[in-house]
Structure formats: structure tokens, C-alpha cells
Amino acid sequence: MRTPEHQAHDRDAADPGHRHLFHVPPADGGRYPEVAYLAGNSLGLQPRATRGELLADLDAWARLGVEGHLDAARPWLPYHELLTGPAARLVGARPAEVVVMNSLTVDLHLLMVSFYRPAGRRTRIVIEDTAFPSDSYAVRSQARFHGLDPDATVVRLTPRPGEDTLRTADVCDFLAAEGDTVALVLLGGVNYLTGELLDIPAITAAGRAAGAVVGWDLAHAAGNVPLALHDWDVDFAAWCSYKYLNAGPGALAGVFVHERHLGDPHLPRFEGWWSTEAATRFEMTPVSRPPATVEAWQISNPPILAMGPVRTSLEIFDAVGMPVLRERSLRLTGWLEHLLDEVTADRPLTVVTPRDPARRGCQLSVRIAGASAAELAKRLRYEHGVIADAREPDVVRFAPVPLYSTYHDCWRVADALAATVEGATS
Ligand SMILES: *Cc1c(COP(=O)(O)O)cnc(C)c1O
């Protein structure tokens, strides 16, 4: 390590972020009191405010029973509306376009009920070859549900030979050439494995110009990069809240449907009593009256105790703002990149995430040649207190999260890699 440790401390003093709002797991011994937590892309840390807010919702239930639906300080019936404004601002949407409900893969299925409608020649679904497995399984099962052969229906986009990430132009060229056979484009905004941020507006425009519906899985993009889903004309999107959104393991997901689809009576949807307009819901009529908002995609009454942590988390994003977070993210990830360059130069390690900051969020993925990523991550964890995420066979992912990660966390990553992976000259 050429860069001395004190430089990291200097940067942290000058650019402290919002770490004080979070619980950072303690280290079990070792040189530092806390772990270096680089796995916020897998599970975000717990905001300090979450516990108290959750207990307040539990207390309302204890004191009020069923009357909490109307009488709780935050009444349960309209509780989900508290999340709408902040969630909409987070992804650049209008309030009518966003709702928090269910979990991510469930929501992708519900959205595909509406937006994957194979017909004639236009049957194919375009994903990335490195799509998150859940998305891959979801689209393959949708193909089967429509009586189609998943191998023939699902197109998996691959990078050019010798490259690790997709080129926007290649994706757009594919859509221009073969788009008349494509019913749905469903890509990850930020790829979970490589950390690549795709050009969402350009690919959305290319897909729509080809007559396809374009949806985005924003699991690794929401809370990581600025988004403008409405202006980008995205058809639909969904994201989970337990990665960058810090709402806890298995937290509820968010859904976006563009305004132009809202209130469309020809769009198939699965319905339940939460799909009908709130004003007449309790008239208990046999036929629903769906509102002209994305809430028409809701089905069940929402889990209030699961919504509290999402609300608490979104309040932090609302208060700090994505533009401020993105600025710190660029500084922090740039610093990690600089440190990794010092370490990887003479070691069998390669950063596979795009070098252009405009083409990535905060995550940097490192490939290790000829060794197991899981083994490496284990040694980083147990010898150095660095928590990162390994994806077999050979990628370890490091995510310096702009809300709470430090420059010193990044320094510890590079220092630990230098000590763990043997170099050509060491
Ligand atoms: C994390 C993640 C998921 C997880 O799906 P759940 O339904 O929340 O379990 C799905 N897709 C992507 C791209 C992810 O990153």
C-alpha cells in the first residue's frame, strides 16, 4: 500500500457523510473497533431511527387494536401513502406512479402480468446474460406461463468477447435490428455482478422505438444513482428496499408504472381489495373501481410493521437528497478505485466495473484470477474485518455506500487485499 492510512482519515474529517445515523457492526477484536462494511449493496445497515419508529407502530397496535386503522398517530389505512412522496422523489417519478408493496420478484411478476403480452412474432424477452438469477427465473417462468419455450423466448445479452460489461450502443443496435420480435426488455439499471450502470434513457428510447415495452429492475440502482423514471419514459420499474435503501432484510419493494399506462382499462392486472379506490373500498361491492394510479396494482392490505422501516429509510434519502449522495459517492468510489489500482497493478486482480464514473454507481467489482472469490472474501472478513460480497467463481464486490461508508473503509479494503493476495513482487 503506497497511500498512507492518515490520508484516509484526513478525507473522512473533510467529507464525513451521514454515518452517525446508522448502526455499524462492531468488530470482534482486531485493530479497529468496527468492521469495514462494504456489503451495503447486499444488505444496507440499520438506521438508528428505525427501532424507535417501529416500536411506536407496535405500541399503536397494543393500545388501539383494530382502531389503529384510523386512530393511530400514523393511521394504518393510508399508511402506504406516507411512503409515496419520498419514494417518488427518490426515483424521479410523479406520486401517482409509485407505490411500495410486496417484494421485488413478486412485483416483477405482477408487472409482467400487465406488461409482458406476447403476440404474433413479438414474443421475446431481453435480459442481460448476467441478470440476477431471480429475474432470469421470473422471465423464464413467464414465458412458460404463456405456453412459450423459455430457451427460445428469453434473449440473454452478452458483452463483446474479452469485455466484461455491455455497451449501450450494442444493446440499442440489437433492439433496432431485432426489436420487432421483442415484447419486453427487462434489464438491471445497475448490474448486480459487474456494477455497470446502463444508460437507462438511451436503452429505454431504443426499446420503445422498436415497439417493445421497457421495464427496469432497479434493485442496485435505487438509492445508489440518481433516477428520472418519468422523464426517461420508462414503462415500469421495481426495486427492493433492503440494499441501498437500508430498510432491513426482505424489506418491501417499490414499483413504478409510467403515467401513460395509469387508468388504462385494457391493461390486464391481478386485483384484490387494495386495487380498488380507497374512497369506496369499504362499501364492499363485488366489482372493483381501480384508481387511475399505480395503486391499482396493489392487491392486499399492506404490512404496516414492514412499512415503518421503509418510511424511516426514505426520510433519510429525502433529507439528504440523491444529488448530494451522488457527489459523495463519486468521491468515495473514485478513492477506492485509486487505492485498488495501487494494489491490483502487480496482483492477479482486475476491476471489472466500468472506469467511467458515469457508467457505474458506488460498487466496484474485482475479479481474482485462479482463486476462489468465496475463499478471498472469507479471509478479508476473518483476518481483516472487511465485509464484502463474493460471487462465485471469481468476483468480489465492494460497495462504499455514500450515506455511511468512510474513506478509511476503502483504505482497509485495499490494505487487506494487499496483505491477502500474493503479488508478483512480494
Ligand atoms: C436483490 C435482487 C433481487 C432480489 O429479489 P427479491 O424478490 O427481493 O428476493 C432481484 N433482482 C435483482 C436484480 C436483485 O439485485
Automatic annotation (TrEMBL):
Its cofactor is pyridoxal 5'-phosphate. GO terms for molecular function: kynureninase activity; pyridoxal phosphate binding. The modification N6-(pyridoxal phosphate)lysine is found at K243. It catalyses: L-kynurenine + H2O = anthranilate + L-alanine + H(+); 3-hydroxy-L-kynurenine + H2O = 3-hydroxyanthranilate + L-alanine + H(+). Transmembrane segments: none annotated. One of its GO terms (biological process) is quinolinate biosynthetic process. Catalyzes the cleavage of L-kynurenine (L-Kyn) and L-3-hydroxykynurenine (L-3OHKyn) into anthranilic acid (AA) and 3-hydroxyanthranilic acid (3-OHAA), respectively. Homodimer. PANTHER family: KYNURENINASE. This is Kynureninase. The gene is kynU.
